[in-house]
Amino acid sequence: MTEHSGPLAGLKVIEFAHIMAGPVCGLMLADMGADVIKLESPEGDDSRRFLPPAIAGEPAAFMMMNRNKRGIVANLKSDGGRAVARRLVGRADAVIENYRKGTMEKFGLGYEACAKENPGLVWCELSGFGRTGPYAERGGFDLIAQGMSGLMSITGAGAGGPPMKVGAPLTDITAGILGAMGVLAALLARARTGRGQRVDTSLFEAGIVHTYWQSAIAFATGTAPGALGTAHPLNAPYQAFRTSDGWITLGAANQANWLRLVEALAAPELGRDPRFADNASRMKNPQALEAALAPQLARLGSAEWLAKLEAAGVPAGPVLDINQMHRDAQTLAREMVVEVNHPKAGKVKTLGLPVKFSGTPGKVAGPAPTLGQHTREVLAEYGFAEAEIEKLIATGAVAVG
User: Fold this and answer.
1) Backbone phi, psi, residue 37, to 5°
2) Domains, the chain, ordered by start
3) Which one from 142, 172, 245, 273 is the annotated catalytic residue?
4) Taking the CB of residue 104, how many other CB atoms lie within 10 A of it?
5) Is 172 an active-site residue?
6) 387: Cβ contacts below 8 Å, ≥ 6 apart
7) Could you report the per-residue pLDDT of 116-163, keeping only the tens digit for each?
8) What is the distance between the alpha carbons of residues 95 and 110, in angstroms, rounded to a whole number?
């Protein structure tokens, strides 16, 4: 059995999840030490077919989302596969699932049935729109959730442009993180009451929570904010600017940082301009502010400006591409790029755990499983005799890597 360390060491989690939101929830728990067993169908998680890219034939997308987990194959359409799933769930602390509403119930593996056998079970459901409400029966995808949550209306170059999605699958990833937070909260409640419960979140709600500022504006004014490019809806200047050789971001929104910026630019006239006297004034004149700052910042290169701004105490940073971010000194110092040994792909890089613990550090210790890699190991741990395992394999109820 894989050794686990971290604040969740000893926690048993069964993951019936595919592609992204559910697997993100599982990897967060796994990276913090939980023993996450990913149960796949004989065809495997759909992200195993997200090709290209691949490393030595192994799909890069699947390896990213499923590191630190153990993997088994069980056919839930068979009696034997369902029996395996029931035994695993019966001994689990938590279950993660992101299938359409009713799918797990169809297999006799819904929360109500499983909680009768395991009343302390925490059951996390991640879906497109949640398990209640008029859209509960709908499937959901990040693109759809970004559109319906309002995110696409506030993303883009500016007013009047076409709707634009955030480049990352923001609602999938956020739903997974919210799910992990919900699991941990439910486990804390279980420690007090002895009983588990359902945890229900969705891509739709994960998108909505990213509109806190814009929703505050809409509630207060009745007007729906639109896209602002890189600018902020409540503070200025807080956006990206072109330099003579690239782009930097500039966060000089509060008054102290604004005055520091004026000094760093050696442009005292900006500090005297009544249009820019305070944040309220600057927010009334955003185009004039950008027009005043743009030629100033275009005079020098990014590195020179970043050095000047850092010396002046003005928050600023470069605009990096993904490869540059991977190589950044702070990324590496925070162990956000780590290497694991995959049984087929060899040494592969993956992203690290974004939460650090001083006393019980989590760790990305293992790669994503190959399809059915741990089936024998897990079944033996859960009390299946060798003859039973062979029978399950022979009947197609389970598969081994």
Assistant:
1) -105, 115
2) 12-210+328-399 (3.40.50.10540), 247-318 (3.30.1540.10)
3) 172
4) 22
5) yes
6) none
7) 999 999 999 999 999 999 999 998 999 999 999 999 999 999 988 999
8) 10
